[in-house]
Design a protein that fits this description.
The protein has 5 helices and 6 strands. It has 153 residues and is of the alpha+beta class. It has 2 domains: 7-83, GMP Synthetase, Chain A, domain 3 (2-Layer Sandwich), CATH 3.30.300.20; 88-151, Ribosomal Protein S8, Chain: A, domain 1. A hairpin with a 6-residue loop joins β5 (134-139) and β6 (146-151). α1 crosses α3 (55-71) and α4 crosses α5 (118-128). The longest helix is centred in the middle third of the chain and has 23 residues, at 85-107. The protein is elongated, with a radius of gyration of 18 Å.
């Protein structure tokens, strides 16, 4: 059994699924690293495919992962991005992490960020992991789970 993923097969699965959701959506980029296939999509109706706070995008990506795993001979992952939403969101979260850390370090007070999903919280934690002047932790439960940035020590 090979661990090689078939990006062409996964792209075809993605095209078929997207055609059912938004016939105008077009796959504009497919790249492959390790066991992940990144798929970039462009559409005029991005709001319908992304949803509030990326929830619809997350659900479509989950469906694609399930479908792709059935088509793969080993573990495989799919990263779906629609109109560069994920890239822009990740850049925004990194900036938010840095400015919140700076504020927490200067004010010596905790900064509580808005509720985020686990993927977004991880971006914040990873961005600030090397900083010695602040620490991060997740607090709350379910949809209210958020990152708190606090002064170190």
């Amino acid at each position: 059994m090979s661990d090689k993923i078939d990006a062409k097969k996964i792209k075809k699965i993605a095209e078929e699924l997207l055609k059912k959701i938004d016939p105008e959506a077009k796959i504009v980029a497919v790249s492959e690293t390790d066991q992940t296939v990144a798929i970039g999509v462009k559409t005029d109706d991005a709001e319908a495919l992304i949803g509030q706070n990326g929830e619809t995008l997350q659900a479509i990506q989950h469906l694609l992962r399930v479908m792709a795993r059935k088509a793969c001979s080993g573990a495989c992952f799919v990263d779906l991005d629609i109109n560069d939403y994920r890239k822009k969101r990740k850049d925004y979260l990194k900036e938010l992490a840095i400015s919140s850390a700076d504020d927490a370090a200067l004010s010596k007070k905790e900064i509580s960020l808005p509720p985020m999903n686990s993927y977004e919280r991880r971006i914040i934690h990873m961005e600030l992991a090397e900083r010695r002047d602040v620490a991060t932790e997740s607090r709350g439960g379910d949809a209210e789970r958020r990152v708190v940035v606090k002064p170190a020590g």
